[in-house]
Amino acid sequence: MEKKLFRCEICKEVNFDVIKDERFKTGRISVTMFLPLNKLTASVYALLPFVLTHSCRKYPDFTSLHQQLATLYGASLFSDVNKIGDMQALTVGVSFLDDKFALEKENLSSQLTQLLCDILFDPLLENGTFKEENVNQEKRQLIELIDSEYNDKRILAKIRCEQLMCKDEKFGISRLGDKNTVSKVTPDNIFEAWKNVLKTARIEIMALGDLDEKSALNVFKSAFAKIKRENIVDCKTQIIKEANEVKEQYDSMDIAQSKLVMGFRTHAALTDPEVMAARVAIALFGATPQSKLFLNVREKLSLCYYCSAKYDRNKGIMMVQSGVEKKNLEKAKAEILNQLEEIKKGNFTEAELDDTKRSLANSYRTIGDFLSGLENFYISQSFDGKFLPPEEFVKNMYNTSREDVINAAAKITLDTVYALVGNEEDAQ
Amino acid sequence: MILKEVKSTRIGDKYFCVEHKSGLRVFVYTKPGFSSTYAIIGTKYGSINTSFKSCGQNEVTKVPDGIAHYLEHKLFESEDGDAFAKYAKTGACANAYTSFDMTCYLFSCTEKFEESLKILLDLVQSPYFTEANVEKERGIIGQEIKMYDDDPSWRVMFNLLRAMYHNHPIKVDIAGTIESIAQITPDNLYKCYNDFYNPNNMVLCVAGNVKPDDVMRIVDESMKSNDNKVPEGIFPEEPYNVVTDRIEQHFEIAMPTFQLGFKEKVGKTRATDEQIAQTDIILHALASKSSKLYKKLMDENLINDSFGYEYFEGLGYAAVIFSGESSNPDKAAKIIKQAIEELHTNGVSQEDFERAKKLVYGRNVAMLNSSENISNAMMNLAFAGRELFHAIECIANTTLEQVNDRLKQQLDNNNSSLSVVLPMPDKKGI
Q1: Could you give the CA distance from residue B164 to residue B333 in angstroms, rounded to a whole number?
Q2: CA 20 to 30 Å from B371, out of A337, B59, B179, B288?
């Protein structure tokens, strides 16, 4: 049974969220900083978490920092950049073994909490700015990370579909920025970005697992006491309720299997009352092995190896991804749309609906057994005004009726079709 | 039938194990207070088992590449329907995978555990292959093969295995090829099933919110005994030397990727918990983020966060493999080999050893957070003749002398292969 989440505000728009849970053998603390996605700032903000976790004043080079982490029983220091709605989410965090397992009973929780604070608030500065060689090192690695997204065609197709679909929206901006802008970032740019983030970002600190949460709270409270918070960012996401016309683009590529991605507007988003019905409709459509897409496009027609639908409620979109042979592209596209129509017409049984709900309930109830799962679950609720535990979602989900599902499906509209087309033969 | 309790005083956890009268070995790791339960049943049969002698027979049976994986797909279907349809009624989330030496079927659930376990045990005991259903799967598996053909990280690994191994079937694609799966029929599927899917050859691991008695009751009800003996795997002689020291392939990618393997001498048995602990410590001392090697590779812009290493070990094969993306894989390989030469000359230092040991220990304990990790680990260990808590004790008890002794048998710079996957030659940049 998952434990309760306690939330307290450290200062304006900086929340400290705790789930103390001794079932786990580790503790995990993360700091997620939200800023509006903007073409001018996306690259420098994307770089920031990686520069911060490279080294800090107390551990002034990469190796000494990681030697300390290794000595503390292989603790991890992680950094990441994500997109939640039209917000860029920068994360830095630590994950560490519980004190009681340390071979000499060392105090890991308080040391790692302090380390995380040092990373965030006490970076390595030289002549009032970040060290150029460290910034260059992280620029190089970020550019390679952007390149690696090109390597994975499944990811590439999804990114290109999103960019095409949302080309006039902030959401179309890549979470990692762009290579050209990244290459021009200077240490001073990073320094300004760092100051700006601490001053103006909306911040969620999550402390989970078996750790000393009281001392963690105090450490962060003292750190933020020294920051003058003002001009806190607006966290707004543009929701386009429905698509007026369909955009289509096909790019040829030297690959064996074509990748088809279809983007839809779901109408329901964020905390709209229809969101849960949309989630159930989308699960029924393509998120379980008993879904319409899996049973028809994959099993019955053998058109694809994978074909599934994913709901992004923070943006109000659904992405259907499939791997398909070039000659079957049009057929797969038609069948995917056909299966959505089936749900709109109510062509699904009570049993199918029950199965879908059972599957969703299982997913929600499993979240509490994993620290990273819990973290993602709550962070995705950052703009909802309040956090609800998984069991609330399960309740809400079971209250969704057949009519609710049909009504939600009725409002889903196709916006964009994108495919990376491979080099096999065309359809005869 | 008595359940044996295995406890770790160091960690505070415990699990129960027993050999069921059907021959199936069962492990149940209780995690009180957790909501979910993860169960996995595996048979010691994978992509490398393409030649074998059925029990009591003299001729060697040869089967097409990819058949173990094909069999995994087909077992989900029985005469009375599809296992996914059954799991839909219990709400479990199910899956399966085929690896080099195992095929596993699993589910995770937060309710109706016993019903789901029954489905799991039934599906591995109900083979049902017809001309029609075998034919239907060919299209789907063909698509899966093509999906992996496009994956540079998959290809770089198999190219490495081809570069290192002359004869051992480890280098064969797990799903086979379009040509090899064309030869799969209901007959040869039944042959492989009957020979290898025998409770004597299988292990069930369950972890999470579960009681051992509940598991055993379902096992008693569902597992039928099988008097067939497990076949003898036939493996060709494999020389110590690698085939070639370099192999290259071009792909439609932006970032080159590499795998550098160091092939080892192997005996008739698997590595022990002690040896695995020693090797893990050696590798982390040599190449983790706290090492001189990592710093050098990073400062010369030759690696990024994708850099990793593992001890790739099984029956008849063992190699240390370094992998990652790199703008210049050949230069990265050269530097890694220089560091290895230095390591052989100077040995692992006391300081590096202490630090690596703590890291390996900490990571292994942290892994026990997850029922999925626990079950998969216990399955692997059971097939390898190793044990979970003993493995952790070995880490805690490893000495510097042991580590430096073990080092002498590993990382032979003269017996390594580099596999690289590079962008298309005329690529000018994205």
Answers
A1: 15
A2: B288
